[in-house]
Write a structure and sequence with these properties.
There is one protein chain. The protein is mostly helical. It has a domain at 22-50. The protein contains 1 helix and no strands. The longest helix is centred in the last third of the chain and has 25 residues, at 23-47. It is elongated, with a radius of gyration of 21 Å. The termini are far apart.
């Protein structure tokens, strides 16, 4: 841990249920985002083909 001095009156927010980073969920979300960007880019390419 890294000791940090907090000034008086500071607020410290601690989540109730911290979820660790799940690699499968991260990969699924990123691949979904890339897929949506690819579809958007293809749609814009077709629309601007005039």
């Amino acid at each position: 841990f890294n000791p940090v001095q907090l000034p008086p009156g500071s607020s410290l927010v601690v989540p109730k249920d911290p979820a660790p980073l799940d690699l499968f969920t991260l990969v699924r979300e990123v691949s979904s985002l890339i897929s949506q960007l690819a579809v958007t880019a293809a749609s814009l390419a077709v629309i601007s083909r005039d």
